[in-house]
Amino acid sequence: MRDLTKEPDEWVAEERSRIATEGWGARVLGLQSPQGNWGGEADARNWLCTSYTLLLLKDLGLAPAEEEARRAIGLVRDRIVWQERMGGLPYFDGETEPCVNGWILGAGAYFGEASDLLAERLLSEQLEDGGWNCDAPQSRRSSFHSTICVLEGLLAFERAKGETAAVTEARLRAHEYLLERRMMRSLSSG
């Protein structure tokens, strides 16, 4: 409505307000467990289900200020802690892989839970070539997927909290990493 048909902001807001109480948005919100996660028993696999679910709710356009959204995000914030082998931090402070942490930073920023700690961690994990890789430090070469996930998270972080020189510089280095490879080519194989 906003981007394709250029509907007025108030019409878009009215439509977005329905996502929490109707259709897929309401159904997905209704599947959240009392422990705050989605996907069954609260184990490491289901924290990943929670990450995908938050991305889905963001992409559906769930209005972050809606009561149902605040309740759902509050459960995630207050009840989910990553397992020790994944860092043992509260959910919105991230786990061990930059790609997942990019998602978490982006979803957290969208829903009002942008983590300075997670943004700093991602900045410290940027590789020399300008990108990120979930296999670092063993791999010193960046991954397109990990880099794009982190870029999306850092951009959402800046939109939520304001630009900083460090985040902007990291994003620009990552843009150069992608552009140098023409958005799809490996330096090693072309």
Brief summary:
By secondary structure, the protein is an all-alpha fold.
Structural description of this entry:
This is Squalene cyclase C-terminal domain-containing protein. It comes from Paenibacillus aestuarii. The protein has helices spanning 9-17, 23-30, 44-60, 67-79, 98-110, 116-124, 144-161, 165-180. It has 8 helices and no strands. Helix 7 runs antiparallel to helix 8. The chain has 2 domains: 1-80, no CATH class; 88-190, no CATH class. The protein is mainly α and 190 residues long.
Helix content, binned percent: 40-55%
Sequence stretches where pLDDT stays below 50 over 5 or more residues: none
Q: What structural class should be given to the helix and strand makeup? A: mainly alpha
Number of structurally distinct domains: 2
Using only CA atoms, what is the Rg? Answer: 18 Å
- Specify the number of helices: 8
Order of helices and strands: HHHHHHHH
Shape: globular
Strand content: under 5%
Mean pLDDT: 92
The count of strands amounts to 0
* Spatial gap, N to C terminus: 40 Å
Largest sheet: none
Protein name: Squalene cyclase C-terminal domain-containing protein
Organism: Paenibacillus aestuarii
InterPro entries: Terpenoid_cyclase/PrenylTrfase
